[in-house]
Design a protein that fits this description.
- With 343 residues, the chain is an alpha/beta fold.
- It has a domain of 240 residues: TIM Barrel.
- It contains 16 helices and nine strands.
- The strands form two sheets. Strands 1-4-5-6-7-8-9 form a seven-stranded parallel beta sheet. It has a two-stranded antiparallel sheet with strand order 2-3.
- Strand 6, helix 13 and strand 7 form a beta-alpha-beta unit.
- The radius of gyration is 19 Å and the shape is globular.
Length: 343
């Protein structure tokens, strides 16, 4: 499909472009008044996620208002566990909660996986189709999923956590059980993402949000192994792997061929370039808190980031936009990227 703005696709394919593309993780939610107006009319967050028309509308808002170079479908990583049979709730100002958690092999046996689970996510595919139709090929549409380990962490812990100690205990005490759950998750994610591509996603991003809580050995065994399987299954579409906090395993992540790498703000661009090479597309990695500072500081930080990464770079934050961020700060970030020209 030909895009009117295909800067992201060209960058992911290693083509020479005049400036880096820019988009933001969590780009619609939290900061745009137009998003909040829609959200306030609904009983909860999940009501928006499960409504294809409204999900498409808030997906496109940042394209219209912020002028980003890509749209990322409005959804949630936890729709995958729910499709497998593990219900979750999104508690306002608290975060996700799973009334029932994975505690035994029998719990895992009862979960759906693969196509059986992915078939329960028609509302996501419908949202992608509506979004793609309404975007009218203006910019690429990004689909995403949580990585298997990050989803396991929520399914075992039952909520967000600073340590995810229950989930990590499973890796140490019952590794066979952990692998059984990860295998089911991986099979489901592959089916889910392939369906997303068929529904209109032209780029896929994997979020391994809790990678940084593992060490290198655990990350290789319980996360990277499964991310590699997912990437191998998605050869026909560009993939971005974002493993937050996994600086300790950059050399291992670099062995995944033909994928772009998202970086958090604690990763030094020069070090990342040394590990991944000049030709690998990297994404990131401005500290989201930088957008809470004065505009001149934001613009200088953007220039510094872009010059540090050089070519083959997607301008982004090192994680999602914080809710207290002013729209004007986000616009300054985007404007500075768009005014940048490679030497």
């Amino acid at each position: 499909m030909s895009m009117k703005n295909d800067l992201l696709i060209k960058t992911l394919q290693g083509e020479k472009v005049d400036r880096p593309p820019v988009w933001l993780m969590r780009q619609a939610g939290r900061i745009l008044p137009e998003y909040r107006a829609i959200r306030e009319k609904l009983p909860d967050f999940k009501a928006l996620v499960s409504n294809p028309q409204l999900a498409a509308e808030v997906t496109i808002q940042p394209v219209d208002i912020l002028k980003v170079d890509a749209a990322i479908i409005f959804s949630d990583i936890l729709v995958v566990p729910e499709a497998m049979g593990l219900h979750y709730e999104m508690v306002e100002k608290v975060g996700p909660r799973f009334p029932k958690t994975i505690q035994s092999g029998r719990d895992i046996d009862q979960l759906l996986s693969g196509d059986d689970a992915a078939d329960n996510l028609d509302y996501v595919y419908n949202a992608l189709e509506v979004t793609q139709r309404n975007l009218d090929s203006r910019v690429p549409l990004i689909g995403f999923s949580g990585a298997p380990y990050t989803l396991l962490a929520y399914m075992v812990e039952g909520k967000g956590s600073k340590t995810f100690s229950k989930a990590k205990r499973l890796l140490y005490a019952e590794p066979a059980m952990a692998h059984a759950l990860l295998e089911k998750l991986t099979k489901t994610i592959i089916s889910y993402l392939k369906r997303k591509v068929r529904a209109g996603a032209s780029v896929i991003q994997l979020f391994d949000s809790w990678a940084g809580l593992l060490d290198r050995r655990l990350y290789q065994e319980f996360s990277l192994k499964y991310i590699r399987l997912i990437c191998d299954a998605l050869k026909d579409v560009p993939v971005i792997v974002f493993a937050k906090g996994a600086w300790f395993s950059m050399e291992d992540i670099a062995t995944i061929p033909d994928v772009a790498i998202g970086l958090d703000w604690q990763t030094d661009p020069a070090t990342a370039r040394q590990v991944f090479g000049a030709d690998r597309t990297l994404q990131g990695n401005l500290d989201p808190c930088c957008l809470l500072g004065p505009e001149n500081q934001i613009r200088q930080a953007v220039k510094d980031m872009l010059s540090s990464f050089g070519r083959n770079h997607i301008a982004n934050l090192g994680h999602g936009v914080y809710p207290e961020t002013e729209v004007s700060a986000v616009k300054a970030f985007i404007d500075e990227v768009k005014s940048y020209q490679y030497p």
